[in-house]
Amino acid sequence: MTTHSHLAPLAASFHALHSNGAPLVLVNVWDVASSRLVEEAGAAALATSSSAVSWSLGFPDGNQLPRELAMAALQRIASSTALPVTADIETGYAGAAGAFQDGELRETIRSVLAAGAVGINFEDSGDEPLTEVDEQARRIAVVRRAAEDEGVDLFINARTDTYLSGRFPDTAFTDTLRRAEAYVAAGANGIFVPGVQDLHVLHDLSRRIAAPLNALAGLGAPSVGELHDAGVRRISIGGNTAKAAYATVSRVAEDVLGDGNWSELAGSRSHAAMDELFRRS
């Protein structure tokens, strides 16, 4: 058995962040620069965004990025920080319906741990409309065993797209509870339900799910305080960080290439301040 004893304190710290009272707020990152900026702002942990990593490497989101590229990006991020890191691994880089391979999923988990991460997001959106609940629970159990074989108490944040997919307009709530129960029983530590901003729904979910509830936030979402009061214990913003950053690039380019206006460069960090982010590398 391979062991990663150096990850034990990070894993314990990351688990504890889900039960400290205040929600764990994650500003998702995709490279070392974004990670350093988020850490500088006071983050307690770092989380990658699969969409942001994919875009930065020239791929669309949705299980399109090759595992080796995702893991290389993760390794660079994790090696650049002393904070716990959790990786968005989409459906595990292990094949789609009818071609899913447990061995490939185990290899993904080994790669995640070798890169230095102590948590994952693992989603059920790989099949249509979603992976069957029993099959997804089985996959979560494979993840749990793979992490145990490596000697790491990996935080498995099981994502269900019952709401985000829009495929369950009349049964999303009950389907979410059914999936959450099965996923927790299989070894998940947290449940991620993107696509819900209704505080009443979040409160009911948090009350009835036996694991920390993760909500996806962004423009128009309730505040951190409101989400906390609704029982949410983890808040992330997914690809919104990258979308905001890339929108800035677009505005700068449009101004410079349009009328030669430099105004969109106002407020930029200095060259020295950017270099300073990497002095400890």
- Mean pLDDT rating: 96
Tell me the total number of β-strands.
8
The separation of the N and C termini measures: 31 Å
Q: Looking across the biggest beta sheet, what order are the strands in?
A: 1-8-7-6-5-4-3-2
CATH topology: TIM Barrel
Largest sheet: 8 strands, parallel
CATH class, named Alpha Beta
From the 3D coordinates, which CATH architecture would you assign? Alpha-Beta Barrel
Dominant shape: globular
Helix content: 40-55%
Summary, kept brief:
The protein has 281 residues and is an alpha/beta fold. The protein contains 11 helices and 8 strands. The chain has a single domain (5-239), classed as Phosphoenolpyruvate-binding domains (TIM Barrel).
Topology record:
Blueprint: H1 8-16, E1 24-26, H2 32-40, E2 46-47, H3 50-56, H4 67-79, E3 85-88, H5 102-115, E4 119-123, H6 133-149, E5 155-159, H7 172-186, E6 190-192, H8 199-208, E7 213-216, H9 224-229, E8 232-236, H10 240-258, H11 271-276
Parallel strand pairs: 1-8, 2-3, 3-4, 4-5, 5-6, 6-7, 7-8
Helix pairs in contact: 4-5, 5-6, 6-7
Structure notes:
There is one protein chain. The chain is an alpha/beta fold and 281 residues long. It has a single domain, classed as Phosphoenolpyruvate-binding domains (TIM Barrel), CATH 3.20.20. 44% of the residues lie in helices and 11% in strands. It is built from 11 helices and 8 strands. It has an 8-stranded parallel sheet. Helix 5 (102-115) crosses helix 6 (133-149) and helix 6 (133-149) packs parallel to helix 7. The longest helix is centred in the C-terminal third of the chain and has 19 residues, at 240-258. The model has no long low-confidence stretch (mean pLDDT 96).
